[in-house]
Amino acid sequence: MKLLDGGCRVYTPADGQVSTQGNWTARSVISQSSGSKRITQTVSEYRTVCFSLPCSGVDTGQAKAYPTVVNPVAEEVLYVASGEGHCRIDGHPYDLRPGAALFVPPGAACSIESTGPETLRIVSSCCPEDPGRRIVESPSPAVSGEPPRRMVHEDDREAIRAGQDRVFRYLVHTDLGCRAVTQFVGWIPTSRAPFHFHAYEECIYILEGQGILHLEGYPAASEFGPGDSIYLPDGVVHCLENPGPSPIRLLGVFYPSGSPGAAYEND
Questions:
Q1: Distance of alpha carbon 217 from alpha carbon 234, whole angstroms
Q2: Domains in the chain, ordered, with CATH?
Q3: Buried b / exposed e across 123-151, counting CB within 10 Å, b at 16+?
Q4: Mind listing the pLDDT tens digit for each residue in 217-231?
Q5: What is the pTM of this model?
Q6: Would you call 183 exposed, middle or buried from its count of C-beta atoms within 10 A (0-12, 13-18, 19+)?
């Protein structure tokens, strides 16, 4: 982890506290223990329990490998970075594929399993950090009927321009029932944005591309690349530069909720 001025931090894929339960490995990257105020970021990887075996449903082995998580008071947002799988939120099923984003309401029971040959990698954020977060060993029973709208795919979202050359798409937002947090995916072409600040706390996960984080008034800069994470406290004047040639693709989450395009240039 690289600690920068103003409380900003840049994390590498080797940073974070790692825990493993069965075939689920979670790396807690951004949290209060690592310097954030309220927001968290966790990178989870799920290996398939029995991909090549004739199994169906959730058996005892799968239940142990994929425990159920409950956040009593916090909203949680998930994003599928790679792999395929299934998710149950209070027993309702959702199919997972790259680019899918899910909203887990406070108090809901969420379990995830990988179903493909590739490791299922999910980047999640809990807002605010929930001290009552707990793991339940038994999965939620299946529920019949139409599931609530808790999932969206980035391809189904409208591209929105932020500034002259940057584009983002909402992922989990108010239309999925989320109130406290906003999740989005953004693209940065070869460019350098003007220095600006936000009125919210933000965590970023770099999906693709290489770039540089600049902080106004400080000559030192921090490079970042795929798999890195960035924490930006509210009010810190910064900018992201893409020196090229490939675009940067990033996953962003901020708290409290708002618009990724709401940036304030420093006068």
A1: 17
A2: 16-152 (2.60.120.10), 155-265 (2.60.120.10)
A3: bbbbbbbbeeeeeeeebbeeeeeeeeebb
A4: 887 789 999 999 999
A5: 0.90
A6: buried
